């Protein structure tokens, strides 16, 4: 034992804990990890493999410029091992990053992934380790940490890999957490409560909600950004813009829609009381800005070269887009208005929602067809794949839009909801076990998200509110929600990211610290701490308003908005999805 370790041990003893503190290198051995694995039979139906254990120390790794945690330098013990489900011929790999014993703060963080990835290849783990948390990730049993669900989704023609779907849906993270809590307690030889957290965005946000809904007893705090929940709707919604182009027979030059976005930002920026290039109130934009005023405005984009990733024929090669010089057309504005209204079926019933005004029209981006010399529909392989692979069970991303209508898109949504209601849909709105456990949720969503509608998160909050507190008046139910579940919109922010077109917007980078303060110290995040990560106020602090309060600057010299109650604005986010017979949570 080295001198410094003995001193640390003596200090720990003085502080009243019996734990002997060893150094990272002393603790981080295969034998010590094997000894700390949960004993056989701890978890019904799961068998851990002691033989599979690996352990290595990692020192002084620095992370800077991250979106979801501040700059940090960490040391950790990198541990991997596998387990299998009894009777199933499978193997799931887990990876845990363990802080040095002296840095461990009785915390555990589960991390998730994005798109069809169940993990983030370790990029989310530092956001736990830096706070003295063991951070874990899983490969879901898909074969490796970089194997995505879509690549192993089909077992054969039209044969669904259901175990993989359920693992992705919620089961793998639940097991990662269950095993991780016990392993953590054993590794650090503590019987103290292990504060257990989750943090993720997009698919990672959906995974967070999957845990709130189906493993509510395991967590103390869940941080979920822009969640891809309501999966059947969310995935098919990515096709809505392409279908609208076909149905309306108008294929906007990308430059035209880019111009529309710029004009919208310019017109709506001041409506929030502060002219900073940031649309903090897309609700006021919707109420007060008429897109028709953009008709006739000139646009110009020089010739450019881009990657061709379209579903139909896109081969990942480079494609040259011609220079675009024109004026915003009535057809372009009509198409944009159709999109902004959200998907309606042929009876005019509402099936889904779109992105907020000011967000980019990425789903509507057309491609140049150099044989016809015209702009054409561009299905990205990801969005087509939801239909071809996950709904039609075909091993292809080729999707034809011939004969496809708005009713077809609605049917895709219903089909997805029905097929994956108990795995991917992630809309079990009764959160009683989580709530009764006293656990907390920080949920945030970019006001200008171009990939998952901001309104999707607000509709989910409202669903939970009405299911959990059905007998209360609106304000009373919001007060009841505030004690444990808060939703914040992020002015100007894009999808789980800052927004190049609105660089003066903030981002909530310190959510883990805020959650720790809420769970462990009872500090309620009445507003959400956020930081300017780009733009004129780089490094400065601001606060995000908690729904249903909305940001407004009565003092435009302040970086921090007032949080106001504005019924007309709230009402723009209240949706009635009457295209469905079942409630859409
Ligand atoms: C871990 O599992 C063992 C059984 O193997 C149990 O005795 C122990 O209480 C568990 N510890 C925690 C922290 O869950
Ligand atoms: C890590 O960095 C610290 C401070 O720069 C240094 O003292 C220490 O030796 C480094 N440790 C390793 C293992 O590189
Ligand atoms: C963690 O361990 C696994 C298994 O040995 C290895 O593949 C991975 O590269 C390690 N990661 C780091 C950061 O050391
Ligand atoms: C899907 O197609 C690819 C080639 O395009 C092939 O490698 C793979 O085996 C196919 N998968 C199934 C399940 O048929
Ligand atoms: C899958 O279907 C295709 C086309 O029907 C057929 O050529 C192929 O042999 C089938 N593959 C398997 C593994 O059944
Ligand atoms: C674990 O801690 C207990 C006291 O809490 C102590 O008696 C025991 O020796 C420790 N075990 C190890 C392996 O350090
Ligand atoms: C939109 O504004 C950005 C700067 O914010 C600019 O780079 C881009 O060229 C503009 N697009 C069009 C079509 O004018
Ligand atoms: C938007 O402007 C157009 C053209 O001036 C007009 O026809 C339309 O009624 C306006 N829409 C709203 C909602 O005011
Ligand atoms: C069309 O673009 C492809 C590459 O995307 C190129 O190979 C081909 O020569 C082009 N054809 C014409 C007529 O420009
Ligand atoms: C765009 O077209 C207009 C009118 O046709 C013309 O005056 C202008 O020079 C063009 N701009 C560019 C950059 O080619
Ligand atoms: C709800 O609370 C807001 C202030 O947060 C207040 O302006 C509004 O009048 C209240 N509504 C009702 C119905 O009490
Ligand atoms: C809030 O964010 C600022 C930077 O904007 C940071 O310095 C501060 O530590 C954060 N507070 C919490 C509680 O994380
Ligand atoms: Ca503004």
From TrEMBL:
Enzyme superclass (EC): hydrolase
SUPFAM superfamilies: alpha/beta-Hydrolases
Keyword Disulfide bond: yes
Residues annotated as signal peptide: 1-20
Enzyme Commission (EC) number: 3.1.1.-
GO MF annotation terms: feruloyl esterase activity; metal ion binding
Keywords on record: Calcium, Disulfide bond, Hydrolase, Metal-binding, Serine esterase, Signal
Keyword Zinc: no
Family per record: Belongs to the tannase family.
Protein name listed in UniProt: Carboxylic ester hydrolase
Taxon lineage: Eukaryota, Fungi, Dikarya, Ascomycota, Pezizomycotina
């Amino acid at each position: 034992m080295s001198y410094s370790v003995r001193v640390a041990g003596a200090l720990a003893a003085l502080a009243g804990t019996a734990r002997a503190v060893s150094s990272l290198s002393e603790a981080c051995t295969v034998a010590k990890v094997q000894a700390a694995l949960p004993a056989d039979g701890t978890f019904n139906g799961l068998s851990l493999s002691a033989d599979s254990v690996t352990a290595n120390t990692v020192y002084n790794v620095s992370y800077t410029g991250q979106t979801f945690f501040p700059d940090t330098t960490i040391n950790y013990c990198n541990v991997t091992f596998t387990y299998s489900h009894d009777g199933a011929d499978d193997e799931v790999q887990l990876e845990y990053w363990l802080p040095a014993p002296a840095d461990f703060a009785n915390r555990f963080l589960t991390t998730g992934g994005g798109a069809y990835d169940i993990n983030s290849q370790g990029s989310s783990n530092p956001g736990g380790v830096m706070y003295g948390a063991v951070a874990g990730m899983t490969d879901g049993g898909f074969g490796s940490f970089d194997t995505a669900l879509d690549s192993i989704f089909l077992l054969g023609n039209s044969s669904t890999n259901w175990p993989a779907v359920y693992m992705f849906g919620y089961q793998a993270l639940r097991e990662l957490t269950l095993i991780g809590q016990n392993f953590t307690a054993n590794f650090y030889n503590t019987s103290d409560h292990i504060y257990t957290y989750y943090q993720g965005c997009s698919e990672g946000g959906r995974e967070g909600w999957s845990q709130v809904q189906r493993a509510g007893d395991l967590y103390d705090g869940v941080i979920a950004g822009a969640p891809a929940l309501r999966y059947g709707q969310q995935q098919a919604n990515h096709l809505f813009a392409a279908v609208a182009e076909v149905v309306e027979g108008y294929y906007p030059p990308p430059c035209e829609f880019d111009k529309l976005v710029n004009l919208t930002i310019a017109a709506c920026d001041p409506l929030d009381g502060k002219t900073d290039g940031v649309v903090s109130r897309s609700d006021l934009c919707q109420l007060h800005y008429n897109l028709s005023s953009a008709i006739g405005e000139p646009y110009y984009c020089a010739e450019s070269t881009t990657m061709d990733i379209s579903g139909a024929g896109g081969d990942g090669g480079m494609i040259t887009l011609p220079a675009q010089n024109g004026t915003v057309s009535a057809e372009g504005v009509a198409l944009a208005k159709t999109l902004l209204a959200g998907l309606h079926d042929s009876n005019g019933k509402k099936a889904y929602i779109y992105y907020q005004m000011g967000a980019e029209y990425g789903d509507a981006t057309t491609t140049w067809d150099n044989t016809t010399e015209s702009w054409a529909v561009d299905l990205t392989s990801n969005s087509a794949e939801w239909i071809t692979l996950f709904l039609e069970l075909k091993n292809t991303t080729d999707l034809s839009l011939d004969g496809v209508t708005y009713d077809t898109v609605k049917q895709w949504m219903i089909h997805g909801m029905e097929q994956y209601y108990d795995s991917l849909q992630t809309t079990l709105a009764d959160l009683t076990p989580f709530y009764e456990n006293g656990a907390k949720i920080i949920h945030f969503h970019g006001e200008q998200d171009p990939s998952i509608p901001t309104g999707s998160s607000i509709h989910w909050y409202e669903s939970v509110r009405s299911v959990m507190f059905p007998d209360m008046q609106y304000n009373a139910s919001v007060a009841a929600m505030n004690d444990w579940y808060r939703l914040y919109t992020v002015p100007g922010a894009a999808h789980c990211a800052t927004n190049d077109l609105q660089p003066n917007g903030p981002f909530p980078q310190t959510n883990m610290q805020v959650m720790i303060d809420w769970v462990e110290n009872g500090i309620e995040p009445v507003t959400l701490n956020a930081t300017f990560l780009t733009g004129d106020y780089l490094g400065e602090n601001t606060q995000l308003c908690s729904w249903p309060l909305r940001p407004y600057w009565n003092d435009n010299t302040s970086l921090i908005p007032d949080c106001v109650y504005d019924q007309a604005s709230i009402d723009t986010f209240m949706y009635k999805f009457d295209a469905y017979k079942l409630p859409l949570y």
